[in-house]
Design brief:
Blueprint (H helix, E strand, L loop, with lengths): L3 E8 L8 H20 L3 H19 L4 E7 L2 E4 L2 E4 L3 E7 L6 E6 L6 E5 L5 H8 L12 H8 L3
Antiparallel strand pairs: 1-2, 2-3, 3-4, 5-6, 6-7
Helix pairs in contact: 1-2
């Protein structure tokens, strides 16, 4: 039986509206890196930079959907993805930043951290719901994720 401990709705990620200047800056940086790659005779890298920049820009301009987050006896369910407790290592509820979030450390190598925004519930309630199943260890949000948020991605 999956007794539900806590439930809330939250956006998938923090979204900032993009201005025309943002797109110009991304374009200029992309073209500069691609030109350097072409000068260094690395055409494949230049094409990879252009394609990845285009893809990231498309993703960054997409508004986040609202997902349901549930914590129950078997794991954490965020949207359509279920994370069972046996695949998770520890958690940390981050409240020092502008947006409270729960950082869950996964045992999976390619996805070490799961970041879920806390919205509409108290962060202390999330902490109490998770501490029954996972140890609490202080985690920092991955640097790359902070960098992407800073630049508006």
């Amino acid at each position: 039986m999956n007794e539900e401990k806590l439930k809330w709705q939250t956006p998938e990620y923090i979204y900032r509206e993009k201005t025309a200047d943002w797109y110009w800056i991304v374009s200029i940086v992309t073209i500069s890196i691609a030109l350097i790659a072409i000068i260094l005779n690395n055409i494949i890298f230049a094409l990879l930079i252009i394609a990845s920049s285009f893809t990231l820009s498309l993703f960054a301009s997409r508004k986040p959907s609202v997902i349901d987050v549930r914590i129950n006896n078997s794991g954490i369910i965020a949207g359509n993805t279920k994370y069972t407790y046996d695949s998770l290592d520890s958690f940390w509820v981050e409240t020092r930043e502008a947006y409270p979030k729960v950082l869950v450390k996964s045992k999976k190598l390619l996805m070490p951290f799961i970041v879920i925004l806390i919205n509409g519930v108290e962060p202390s309630d999330v902490k109490h719901a998770l501490e029954k199943y996972l140890p609490e260890k202080e985690h920092a949000e991955p640097f790359l994720e902070k960098l992407l948020i800073y630049f508006g991605f």
